[in-house]
Amino acid sequence: MAALLIPRRNRGMRTRLGCLSHKSDSYNDFTAILPDKPNRALKRLSTEEATRWADSFDVLLSHKYGLAAFRAFLKTEFSEENLEFWLACEDFKKTRSAAKLASKAQRIFEEFIDVQAPREVNIDFQTRELTRRNVQEPSLSCFDQAQGKVYSLMEKDSYPRFLRSKIYTDLLSQTQRRLS
């Protein structure tokens, strides 16, 4: 009897693992990725704007809807922590209060840099250690090297895949169809 239960359990586990490992790259409903009022947002997004996202990674990141679409894509790849870390660093650089600087630096370090961080970014040991030392006496530039590494990783790896992704091509198609 026990021998019969094991294969069933394994089959169920394989099915569950298969569902978890399947990465959907398609979005038919873009309301999930667009901030604010999604239906109006999609109507406002022009094909020209969405096409410009392919000009450079900076153009994509500087556009509200481009950022949202890229975030949605990274979620399908289970790597949205990279973008979240980069955004947290951008926000950190705007900190003007010395009292808040230390607590914000510690929070970012614990969330993204520390070895067992819940949303640990993929950086090398030397960068991690340099950042650890920098956070001991935080300045507005204490995450610069780590942020640069993560930015470069996204620009060279995730961004080209995003431009080839079904999320992006479907979004472009939807904006073009609206014109016809």
Write a short abstract of this structure.
With 180 residues, this protein is mainly α. Helix content is 71%, strand content 0%. This is Regulator of G-protein signaling 8.
Q: Uncertain segments of ≥5 residues (pLDDT<50)?
A: 1-31
Helix % is: over 70%
| Beta content | under 5%
CATH homologous superfamily identity: Regulator of G-protein Signalling 4, domain 2
What fold name goes in the CATH topology slot?
Regulator of G-protein Signalling 4, domain 2
Element-by-element helix/strand order:
HHHHHHHHHH
Protein name: Regulator of G-protein signaling 8
Main location: membrane
Organism: Dryoscopus gambensis
GO cellular component, one term: perikaryon
Layout of helices and strands:
Layout: H1 2-21, H2 38-44, H3 47-52, H4 57-62, H5 64-76, H6 80-92, H7 98-113, H8 125-136, H9 144-164, H10 166-179
Helix pairs in contact: 5-6, 6-7, 6-9, 7-8
Tell me what the structure shows.
With 180 residues, the protein is mainly alpha-helical. The chain has helices at residues 2-21, 38-44, 47-52, 57-62, 64-76, 80-92, 98-113, 125-136, 144-164, 166-179. The protein is elongated, with a radius of gyration of 20 Å. The termini are far apart.
